[in-house]
Structure formats: C-alpha cells, structure tokens
Amino acid sequence: MKRIIECVPNFSEGRDRSVIDRIVEAIASVEGVKVLDVDPGEATNRTVVTFVGEPQPVLEAAFRGASKAAELIDMRHHHGAHPRSGATDVLPLIPVAGITLEECAELARGLAQRLWSELGIPCYCYEAAAFKEERRNLAVCRAGEYEALPEKMADPERKPDFGEEWNERAARTGATNVGARGFLIAVNFNLNTTSTRRAMAVAFDVREKGRKAREGGSLTGKLLKDEQGRQIWIPGTLKGCKAIGWYIDEYGIAQVSMNITDIDATPLHVAYEEVSRAAAARGLRVTGAEIVGLVPRKVLLDAGKFYLAKQQRSLGIAEEEIVKIAVKSMSLDDLKPFEPSEKVIEYLMEDPAEAAAREKLVRMSLKAFTKETASESAAPGGGSVSAAMGALGAALATMVANLSSHKRGWDDRWKEFSDVAERGQALIDELTALVDEDTAAFNRIMDALSLPKGTEEEKAARAQALEDATLYAASVPLRTMEASLRALPLALEMARKGNPASASDAGVAALAAVAGIRGARLNVRINSAGLSDKSAAEPLLKRADEIELEALELEKSVLEEVNKNILL
Hints:
Elements: E1 4-7, E2 10-11, H1 17-28, E3 33-41, E4 46-53, H2 55-72, E5 88-97, H3 101-119, E6 123-127, H4 138-141, H5 149-153, H6 168-173, E7 176-180, E8 185-191, H7 196-206, E9 211-212, E10 233-234, E11 241-248, E12 253-260, H8 268-281, E13 286-292, H9 297-310, H10 319-329, H11 340-343, H12 345-349, H13 352-358, H14 366-374, H15 382-405, H16 414-449, H17 456-497, H18 503-528, H19 534-567
C-alpha cells in the first residue's frame, strides 16, 4: 500500500490571485504531489490549499509553499476576519493511507524544525505533533494572533517550539503552526423536513458535545447547572463528531451538517446509521448523505463491507462493487451524482496515463491479450501468461466461495465463505499486477542491454545493470509462484466445503494455479541461468522447487475432493 498523506496549509492571502497562484505553483512543482483544491476567501484574506502525495514529496511541497509565502506575504500589513499568526498560518499533515497519525506527527515536527533552521520561520507544533499538552489546542498556539508574537517570543513559557527571537525576518513571516491531525470528513445528512429546529435537535442528539441539560428533559425548560454554577451538558452518542442543523435553500430541505474529526472512533457508515436512528426517533427520515470535499478510499470500502455484512453477502467482491454498495446504501447520490473518481483521494491521485502504461496487458480484452501474446514480440511471454493463469485459478476459487456464500439453506455460513472470497480477491489483485510486471521485468533487461559499452566504466555499469535486471526478472515469476500457491488452499477448501454444484470449478482453479506455478518456475530457471553470481540464483531455484512440489501435492488433494463430489 502506498503511504499517502494530505496537507492543508492555510496562507494569509485570499485577495491577490497572483500571490496565491505563485504559492500554489511552488507546491505543485514537486513531482509526486497533486494539488486537489485551492479555496481563497476574500473576507478572511486567507487561502486553503489541499494537496496529497507520499510523505517526502508532500513535506518538500509544504516547505516550498511556506518559503514562497514568506517571500510574498508581509504579515505587518495583513488584515482579515480569520484568526492568524503567520504568512503560512497552519500547516497540518493528515494520514490518508499506509501511515499512522503518530508518524505524521514526527514528520510535522521535522518540518517545523526545517522551516525555522532554513527559512527563519518561528513554529509552534500543535494537535498530535504538540510537544506540550496544552498546545494540542491550536487556539492556545495562536493566542493573541500575529500581534502578540513579540511578547510571546520573549516569554519562555509561550515562545514557539522552534524560534529564538523576534527579528526582522520573524516580523515579516509571523509564526507558522505545524501539526498533525486525523482526517476530517465533512458530511451533510439530508432529512425529509424543512424544519431547522428539528434538524438541530437530531444534531444535538448525536454530536459528541450533546446539548445543554434542562429541567424535565424538555427543549425549553430551565437550564441546569452543577454546584459550581457550571452548565450541565448531556453528551451525544457519536465520539469525535461536531454537528448542527440547518436549512439549504438550494435543495429545499433541512440537513444535519457534521464534521467527523475521528474517523476511527466514528466511521462514516456508523454516523449515517446513528443519525438515521436519531432522526427516526423524532419522526424523521434520512434520505441520503452528501460528502463535502474528499474521502480516503478506506472510508467507502469499510462502509460497503459493513452493508454487505448486514445483508449477509460475501465481502470478497471487486472493489468497484464494494464502493457501489456504499454509495447506494448511504444514498450519497441523493442530491447529485456521486463519482468516486472525483471524491476518493487515492482515485484522484492516480495518473490515468501512468495507470494505463502500468496495466497495459490486464486492461486488454482476452482476445487482444491473446493476440498480443501471439505476436512476434518476445513480451508478453510465458511469465505474463503464468501470472494470468494463477489469477484465473484464484478467481475460480473466489467464485465458488461467493456462490457458496448465498446458497439456499447455507445462510448461516455466509461469513465462512466470505472470508475465503476476500483472500481470493487479494490474490487476484496481486497476480493481475504481476501479469504486467513480468513484461516490465523483461523490458528492464532489454534496457540494460542497450546501454553503451565503450569505456571500461561503461562496461562495468552495463554489466551491473544487466545483473540487477536479470535478478529482478527471476524474482518476479517467483512471486507469481508464491501467490499462485496461496490460491491452492482456497481451491481445496472450496472443493471440500463449497457448493457441490461448483466442484468442477474448484478443480479447474487448482489446475490453473498449478499451471501458473509450473510455467513461472520455467521463467525463474531461465532468468536465473543468466546471472553471473550463481550464489544469488541458488535461493530462488531452491524456493521454486519447493513451491512446485507443494503445489503438486495440493493439486492432487483438490482433485481427489472434486472427484468425490462429481461421483456423488
């Protein structure tokens, strides 16, 4: 899984488009970073930029954006409606996929240190990146705003985490608040009412803060206070959620507008179900939901799997189908079309041209792939075909599991088969990727062979490149063998426990997986033979032999079980 983080810096300029554009250009200049949104505000004199990528490119883009803002924005002349303390006011890092909040916090601290040491920008670290507990709250870091910085920097208790003195540079840039926080989902739940008051009541029921306690539990009774005279609050049911009710003229309905600030504590589908319950208790109905902004892929996959499980349906289906279930179950297309390609961060990050080049073979029709294999070119060849055979074996085992999961009379066994199907889907993804990767490995050898070999230095570089490419070309089919081997226990389990009517499919799954294994072994051998360092080939060949022997034993077991079912 790619490690993906989101960065949402707020720059203290929302009126001069040329300044905003130059800051965004600096961010976008980093390869591997994708700018998703630029949202300037004239009244606040502030622009929010959203960009994503892998950690190191995002850190570099954040640094360049802050550097350009320091060059173009003079805080001594800044005025706006929004609280602010610096040219780059806040700089949060947000985990999206493959990385934890704690890791983002460490990255944020490193970024803050770099901003001070290389650019002279004082920095406070807030939320998960805070060095001091009270500074987890951004408001504490930004107290007094820009105007209070000279006094704060002179106070040992209030001075920035990075930054020693108030000087000409600091006066121009102000202080930046660098932090790490969880991903925030902004979502509106549509209600079948026009009443803002009723929508607000539902919001109070579910938001973590809840509502003020009143006498008799009524909405209009006298406010209740504790012995110290403090207002008593009745907490809501959803952790990490803020919510209000409002009326939207554009749609002619009331909504519960919610920010989910802790998507681990309250996933989107949990919020949807709870708002629906609270609305129903008040005689209302949630007709759908509207996601504002973007969501990580995992949010929709978790939701889709939740609703599939409620239906006692297998979770081992294609990702696109799981996402479709999530969209329909929460009616995310209630008010307007919901396009996952435009709302899911990982999908937005995918470069269509790069994806097409990386998946050239698997995107072909079966007819086109067969013709391409039969052409005069050496690739795709036996390695790609072996990976395809392994993928088909995994696919057939998955099919039997999915068919078994909703066989009449087997309803109480759906989870057993769903687990098998999920494992099968993971193998399908792995093996289909290897179809193209095997051809890419062959092309690396061709590229190495084309390197110049005039000087002794060039000859050595060419030889090393060829050795590296050959080792890689031998390791790819070994990965095909490993993945195809993992498909055989699934086929065996389905031959023994799956729908008897699909017994032959389980058998073909085993035959296809073994064909992929034996074919890939030939590629391991022929590529290993091209290695100069024979000691590097030995472990590859040894493992390949072990896999083939294990596969043949499993194939025999599968076919024995299949034949029992066919005879019955």
